[in-house]
User: Fold this.
Amino acid sequence: MGFAQDLLEQSQFLVRREPGKPKQASLRRAVSTAYYAVFHLLAWEAANQATPTSPSGLTVRVTRSLEHNSMKRAAQQFESGNLPDAIKPLVSSSVPAVLIEAARNFILLQDERHAADYDLTRAFSRARAQTAVDAAARVLANWNAIRDTDDARTFLAALIFPKLASR
Amino acid sequence: MSTNKAALYDKGPQVAVQGNFGDLEIVSVDTSRWEAKFRARTASGTFGPEFTTRLSMIRPLSDEDTGKFWKMLVDNLMRVLKEEGKYPSFVKGYEVTTGEDSTGDPALYVEILVSPQREYAAKTVDSWRNFLDLVHSRLLSLRLQRYPYVRVGEKSRRK
Assistant:
């Protein structure tokens, strides 16, 4: 989680960098970095779970194959509880709230990241940026509590194998 | 066989019909019952009968999928939350828009407006987060065909 944690700390620094009138660049980079903190956490966990320890470098290469779009769709299924039949028997009847929150924040952050990086038509407020950074912080803070559960393992598998989460 | 000319030429009841004969307009939204009422309306102001649709059946880019409909839906939800005593005082307003999200999927955006400050305490952000999650969960439970994105904005920075 080291890299993800470093990214989170950078986003926390950027969102508070200018106490008076924040620069748009700082707020937007804070939001974008917050998303990537969560993305790299989940990507690494998913790839680590799916690959053997040898050859070295395989896990990192697997993380490069992840697609943001299909990860979002899998996260939406976990968040809504509307899981495909292939996955349903693998998760508990009530998915832990922390996992649902992680899925939700991943989806929201992905869209915020896109707005922060590409949509310059509207100014980003500090309140909006701070909420995004806070969402990422919650995912990282709570992940250890669920990472060894079957629900989390199935969630990670769905993130990395899109067909597992398709109907 | 004689023709009943009165039946041929009489205008009959003046009722609007959707399509070439009238535009669809939203009448009401009830998030507690998961449904909305619509009716057709002609340019001359004639109304057709009301009909009820499940909120989950309203497809993106359909005649029902209008900005006014989504605004009424969120208005109704906020009214319900007020009645339940779950509408916090920090909410200074909200904005409702629709569009496509970063992956091109249909999206509903709700921006909760708060008063701007130089910095925000963690407790303040937590209280926002709780309300955002509540609104998001309620919208998600309606199984809408637009995914709801609920976020915070600052009121005075709005145009």
Summary: Residues 2-165 of chain A form one domain. The mean pLDDT of chain A is 93. Chain A touches chain B through 30 residues (CB under 8 Å).
